[in-house]
Amino acid sequence: MAENSKLKLLYILDIMKKTDEFHPINSTQIAAKLSAYGIQAERKSISRDLACLEDAGYSIIKCSDHNKGWYMTDQTFEDFELKILCDAVGYAPFLTDKDTRDLVKKVRDLATAEGEKLISAATYLDTTIKTDD
C-alpha cells in the first residue's frame, strides 16, 4: 500500500502538470485518471496529496469555485513557447523527418492538455527541406 501511495503522488503530479488556470481539474477527475493507472483514490486523499505537493514547493492553486478543482502554475514553459520551439524544429533542415517528429512529440508532451492540441493542430512539418540522414 505504501508503494501504491508513492506512485499515486507521482501520478497526481504528472496529472497536475497538464493543467492551467483555464483548465483546472477536480478530485473526481483526478480519481478517474488515477484509475487508468490502476490506482483507486478517494477525494479526501487526493486533497491531502495535493496539499503535500504544495508543501513540497509546487505551485498548486485551488479555484475560487471549489467544484472546478485545482491547477498548477509552475510549468517550465508556457504553451506558446513550446509552439515556437516546435515550429523551429519543423523548419530545421539539418534534422531528418523522423528526428523532427520525435522531437516535436517530446516537446508537445511538456505542454498542458490544451497546448498539446494547439501544437498538434498547428505545427507544420515541411518534409521537402529535411535531410535524408
* Shape, principal axes of CA atoms: elongated
**SSE arrangement, N to C:** HHHEEHHH
Computed over alpha carbons, the radius of gyration is 18 Å
Low-confidence runs? none
Task: Give the SSE map.
Blueprint: H1 2-16, H2 27-36, H3 43-55, E1 60-62, E2 70-72, H4 79-90, H5 97-108, H6 113-122
Antiparallel strand pairs: 1-2
Detailed description of the structure:
By secondary structure, the chain is mainly alpha-helical. Helix content is 54%, strand content 5%. It has helices at residues 2-16, 27-36, 43-55, 79-90, 97-108, 113-122; strands spanning 60-62, 70-72. A two-stranded antiparallel sheet has the order 1-2. Strand 1 (60-62) and strand 2 (70-72) form a beta hairpin. The model has no long low-confidence stretch (mean pLDDT 89).
What's this model, at a glance?
The chain has 133 residues and is mostly helical.
Supply the key terms.
mainly alpha; elongated; 133 residues; single chain; 2 strands
